[in-house]
Amino acid sequence: MKPSAYVLLFFLWIGTFYASTIMAFAEFISLWYMPAGISIAAFLIFGKRAFIPIFLAVFFLSFRFTEQLQQGLDPAHLAAAILFALAHTVPYGLGGLAARYWLSHFIQHGLPIRIIGLLVIYAVSALCAAIAGLFVWEFTTETYDNIIEEGWFAWWLGDLVGVMVIAPLMCLILPKFTNTRLAWLEEFYAHDRKLSANLKPFLFKLCVAAAAVIGILLLDSQLTHPGIAYFVFFVTIPQLWIVLTERTSFATTSLVVITVIMAFGVGLFNVTDQAITYQFALYMTAAISYFAVAVPALIQRNIQLQEMSMVDLLTNLPTKWLFKTLVNQVVKSSRPNQNHSIAMYNLDHFKKINDDYGEAIGDQVLIDSAQIMKNELRDSEILCRCEQDIFVVFMPNLDIDAATKRANELRHKLPVLHIDDLILPIRGSFGVAQVQFGEAIEETVERATRALQQAKQEGRNKVVAIS
Ligand SMILES: Nc1nc2c(ncn2[C@@H]2O[C@H](COP(=O)(O)OP(=O)(O)OP(=O)(O)O)[C@@H](O)[C@H]2O)c(=O)[nH]1
């Protein structure tokens, strides 16, 4: 945690506190309490080191407030400020640390499970902070009766919305103030680099969301029907649109913008009777966004897995799976009189190269020999790495005799490799088989495998065909 982070957290906390009071709809109860999000995110990103700036910020403000209440500067005054600071910092501190542990130590769980855990931690921390805060308030001011019973729900929900909206934004900003790499956090933003940074479509969608919120607030202020406010739940639709199609950083920003409009709008349009409904809508919008964020990340991972299943990571050749798919396409679209063949080859005594010179040299042999073979192929021929040191070439429009001849040509193309100071003559045994009309490519591969085994048994470095 860089020293500037202490200053930043202190002033952010105080600044957001004042911003939240502007948006308060009841005494000290805000539609969304932004500082709660700063606190939990600070512990989430910096760990227990966040305690000092957060504690000091709450203490500073609590101390000033009691001053404003003109209770005089006495020890009770100080004790109340300390209690307020602890009532906030301890629940959010423990919550932030629990969330940090949960996200970083349970990477094996999928994103949705980790998000559910995160939401539970957020909810419990906010509830504890709300009850502890009200308890300290009742205990220190003596002017309010039943304040816990009356205020806990709105305080809790306001804090929870603050946590859910502000924490993701802070997770974008605060990591810049630490030198530690937070791999568990990067996962949430990993797909950002792959999505467009074009602001125009994002701003259009954001305007749709903002117009929806303002429209509903306006309607609610004009029509007296209590059900109008429930339409605000529709704002989840444009927000989801943003989350599913834009960068996580944009989705995070839009959540903050929508929340600010709604929080200001409730007071501005004088619809405070329905404040809880708006708070719930904010909470639902944020919760749904959390889950939706997992979707682009999952899609990205699927694409990655698909690529891995299609391209061999070592040689960059198609895998057996892709080979079969491509060959099946060609075979299925062929006429009955069109003959196609495959040639399977296995490097001779490859194990010895691994054993004598190490796996890195073995890898290089596979890479170089595959590349050289690929360069020798015609455009219509397809080469794939089947497994280990076994490769297959698809030879379209060649019957078994022509394919055997072609396989012999390719056998002679296997190179003498020069790797570091080593000179390695590469040899291979080939098995050729013709694709019979109507058969699955797996059957052809099986015959080619038998032909290859026969070539090995007959002394290697030769071509054997099985029709
Ligand atoms: N370096 C390297 N070795 C691999 C890789 N995949 C498999 N191997 C090794 O490749 C060797 C394959 O050996 P075989 O084809 O069974 O035997 P061989 O020595 O080539 O003998 P013949 O095929 O009978 O001529 C095994 O030792 C595997 O451990 C890989 O990706 N990189």
TrEMBL record:
Per UniProt, what is the membrane topology?
A: Multi-pass membrane protein
Q: Name one GO molecular function term.
A: diguanylate cyclase activity
Into which EC class is this enzyme placed?
transferase
- Any idea of its EC number? 2.7.7.65
The residues covered by the GGDEF domain are: 338-467
* Membrane-traversing stretches: 6-26, 38-61, 81-103, 115-137, 152-174, 202-219, 225-243, 250-269, 275-299
Listed Gene3D superfamilies = 3.30.70.270
Q: Which GO terms describe its biological process?
A: cell adhesion involved in single-species biofilm formation; negative regulation of bacterial-type flagellum-dependent cell motility
Report the locations given in the UniProt record.
Cell membrane
Q: Which reaction does it catalyse?
A: 2 GTP = 3',3'-c-di-GMP + 2 diphosphate
SMART domains the record matches: GGDEF (SM00267)
Q: By its UniProt entry, which InterPro entries does this protein fall under?
A: Diguanylate_Cyclase, GGDEF_dom, MASE1, Nucleotide_cyclase, Rev_trsase/Diguanyl_cyclase
Please provide one cellular component term from the Gene Ontology annotations of this protein. Answer: plasma membrane
Keyword terms of this UniProt record: Cell membrane, Membrane, Transmembrane, Transmembrane helix
NCBIfam families reported for this sequence = GGDEF
Q: Which PANTHER family match?
A: DIGUANYLATE CYCLASE DGCM-RELATED (PTHR45138:SF9), REGULATORY COMPONENTS OF SENSORY TRANSDUCTION SYSTEM (PTHR45138)
Name under which the protein is recorded = diguanylate cyclase
Organism of this sequence: Pseudidiomarina maritima
